Amino acid sequence: MSKIAASILAANTMHMSEAARRIADAGCEYVHFDVMDGVFVPNLSFGPALLKDLKAEVSLFADVHLMLMDPLRFVDVFAQSGADAITVHVEADHFAESIARIRALGLKTGASLKPATPAEELRCWLDQLDQILVMTVEPGFGGQTLNDSMFVKIRAIRAMGFTGEIEVDGGVNLQNAPLLAQAGADTLVMGTSFFRAQNPAELVARVHRI
Ligand code: DX5
Ligand code: ZN
Fold first, then answer.
1. How far apart are CA 7 and CA 105, in angstroms?
2. What is the distance in A from the centroid of ligand 1 to the CA of 141?
3. Does residue 114 contact residue 138 with C-beta atoms inside 8 Å?
């Protein structure tokens, strides 16, 4: 059974409370919370205050994706704001210190790879990670088309013996979801696909049947 992490990046920023409820009511396992600094990726998104308000509004597992040049500066504030999982990029500064800090805080610990970064970069980290987030688009913007050369990377991570959760993020939809699951992905980040769905609960039920 695949899990779904609905990405609130794709929501209308004027209706965030409604978006959070829509994610919770549809039965998503996680809310995927994309944090961008305009340096590591060419876009800005939102900060810890929104996460804190979201967690006060709905009961959702907060899967925080830090697309930051120096994530170590923000691990603690997102943990204090309600993050249940924090994922940092292997390409970022202070990657090792960030992973150590997330683990020390007792949070689900994740590492993410941009499309151009080979799976091999994480080989020596596998026993420190609860999840690996495979970017299936260049990070920074929702609504892109999935880069289907990433299927090889998902299989390569499994072939390295990683038994934790593999999440895929970017351009995921009901058409490519079965292929992603067959390659070894457990959790599907869906932003555009989720918020464009006429019947979000039906979308979630279909993901759960994959
Ligand atoms: C990119 C973001 C997006 C978002 C999901 O940095 O991480 O991938 O979560 O985007 P879509 O709209 O493609 O599902
Ligand atoms: Zn993301």
1. 24
2. 6
3. yes
89 close to 115: Cβ distance less than 8 angstroms: no
* CA of residue 20 relative to chain centroid, distance: 16
Q: Where are the domains of the chain?
A: 3-208
Residue 116 CB coordination number (10 Å) = 9
- Write out pLDDT tens, residues 33-70: 999 999 999 999 999 999 999 999 999 999 999 999 99
In this structure, are residues 24 and 58 in contact, taking their beta carbons and an 8 Å threshold?
A: yes
Which fold would CATH assign to domain 3-208?
TIM Barrel (3.20.20)
How much distance in Å is there from the Cα of 50 to the middle of ligand 1? 18
**Nearest atom in ligand 1 to 67's CA:** 6
- Burial classification of residue 78, based on how many CB atoms lie within 10 Å of its CB (0-12 exposed, 13-18 middle, 19 or more buried): buried
pLDDT digits (tens, 9 = 90+) for 86-118: 999 999 999 999 999 999 999 999 999 999 999
